[in-house]
Amino acid sequence: MNRNRYMVPFDKGETVEKSSMTGMLGDNSDLPRFSFEMLAIATNDFSFLSRLGQGGFGSVYKGILPSPDGREIAVKRLSITSGQGLEEFKNEVVVISRLQHRNLVRLLGYCFEGNEKMLVYEYMPNKSLDLFLFGPVEQRILNWKVCFQIIEGIARGMLYLHRDSRLKVIHRDLKASNVLLDEQLNPKISDFGMARIFGGNEVQANTLRVVGTYGYMSPEYAMQGKFSEKSDVFSFGVLLLEIVTGKKNTSFYDYEESLSLLGYTWKLWKEDKVEEIVYPDLSEPCFLTEILRCIQVGLLCVQEFSDDRPNMSSVISMLISETATLPTPREPAFTQRKISQNPDSSQSSGKTYSRNELTVSLSQGR
């Protein structure tokens, strides 16, 4: 078999076999298709040593394309039993292939053969942000300058999705594990299987199928199935506060007052104990003003009502301005947390959600 037939045509002009998905992908039919054989070779037959991680969708593997290309790739291989089916697979291909920004992960191609569905991305050597925030070793590497670089990069990537690209895209599943880090720790937003494209003057949509991750969902989306760019802003606010505090929202619980991470942050903010909010290794006096501004922006992003949240353009302006007067946040959504009797449940018995971080797909909005 001539394997060059299956190579991606970068600058060397190799030919590419087109997929049976051409009709489904429409304008994206020129997106390179990899054969299963090629990706098996690149990942050493999807060996355990090549596996970077796994989730509800399946596994992600590191691979190296055969010469003359030789570049490193990440292969997202959907399991046959994955909750992410053909529609989500197609959605991710269609959405991300039309977008290009330094803070979005780059899709290089895909594989669709029989039951095999795979997405091929540029390889991110530092994996995902959650490992740096919540891993015991990696966490020590991050200083405030790097954290702010990551916060600003995520914000600029989200602004591109909402306002600056030729499409208006609502991500719907922004979280630490969906932010990848390149060699210089620049953030790249990934995982567009849940994303929705808005057309024309559309600003909000409703769905009976609520998808996303508990702890990052806005109230109107989790409870009513309403989503807009402001629901992404809520997710960004949660992520920002996780970066500053070093605590994971989905597993944080203040036993004295039954507070969520949002409630805990709000309580200390009101009591003017903001230094207690910040992860100790980030408490550098020369950056304290910038850190406090980020906390305030985070609280503004997680307001209960969508109209009270800023858009991403305003978020960036507030983050980088040293002179702007920021609005005073009100009490955010989901300040109280009640622990479900079943810790493995995907739903919580209280106002906020369970401690389960898995991406969920509900058959109906609540």
Automatic annotation (TrEMBL):
The UniProt record lists the EC number as: 2.7.11.1
For this record, an example GO cellular component is: plasma membrane
Q: Which UniProt keywords apply?
A: ATP-binding, Disulfide bond, Glycoprotein, Kinase, Nucleotide-binding, Serine/threonine-protein kinase, Signal, Transferase
Instruction: Give one GO term, molecular function aspect.
Output: ATP binding
Q: Where is this region: Disordered?
A: 331-366
Stored InterPro entries: Kinase-like_dom_sf, Prot_kinase_dom, Protein_kinase_ATP_BS, Ser-Thr/Tyr_kinase_cat_dom, Ser/Thr_kinase_AS
Compositional bias, Polar residues, is annotated for: 337-366
Q: What is the name of this protein?
A: non-specific serine/threonine protein kinase
**Species this chain originates from:** Kingdonia uniflora
